[in-house]
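Weekly sync, protein design subgroup
Attendees: M.S., D.O., the rotation student, P.L. (late)

Item 1: inverse folding check
M.S. brought a backbone from last month's batch and wanted to see whether the design step gives back something sensible before we order anything. D.O. pointed out we never logged the input encoding, so this time it goes straight into the notes. Structure tokens as presented (154 positions):
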């Protein structure tokens, strides 16, 4: 279909997951945002602990792509992220050794059929509890909790 959105990706040829793309081409791709545990001790009343999260589920049809399309997707990926580093190594300037590494991956594209986005960020809590949760997440040393608190503040 013209204009249909797709997601490009790749996996190592050593990862057998790509094998299943040949036989079952309906997939679910899950993208997790920040998430973390919320202790019931952070509330000003008796309640249960929970988990806050942001997630996107993408349902679609997956197909393997040829070498030209794989190089196109790698070029876009590399050039996008290399543009943000101090001494970028753009795709066009990659060494022969680096280019040979492409032989070790399998490229795919997922034609998006449905997108489901969900979040649970304690939005059902009263103002005092909400502020306590944000404060506790900000002071936590657990990975991702500061980012989760920042998302809650937005």
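Designed sequence read out in the meeting:
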């Amino acid at each position: 279909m013209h204009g249909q959105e797709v997601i490009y990706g790749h996996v190592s040829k050593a990862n057998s997951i790509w094998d299943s793309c040949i036989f079952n081409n309906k997939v679910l791709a899950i993208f997790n945002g920040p998430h973390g545990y919320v202790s019931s001790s952070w509330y000003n009343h008796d309640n249960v602990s929970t988990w806050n999260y942001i997630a996107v589920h993408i349902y679609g049809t997956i197909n393997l792509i040829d070498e030209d399309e794989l190089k196109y997707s790698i070029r876009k990926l590399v050039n996008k992220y290399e543009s943000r580093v101090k001494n970028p190594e753009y795709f066009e300037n990659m060494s022969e050794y680096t280019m040979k590494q492409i032989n070790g991956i399998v490229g795919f594209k997922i034609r998006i059929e449905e997108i489901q986005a969900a979040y649970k960020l304690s939005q059902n809590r009263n103002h005092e509890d909400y502020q306590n949760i944000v404060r506790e997440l900000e002071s936590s040393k657990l990975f991702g909790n500061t980012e989760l608190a920042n998302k809650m503040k937005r």
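Discussion: DSSP finds five helices and four strands in the chain. The CA atoms of residues 65 and 108 lie 5 Å apart.
Action: P.L. to compare against the previous round before Friday.
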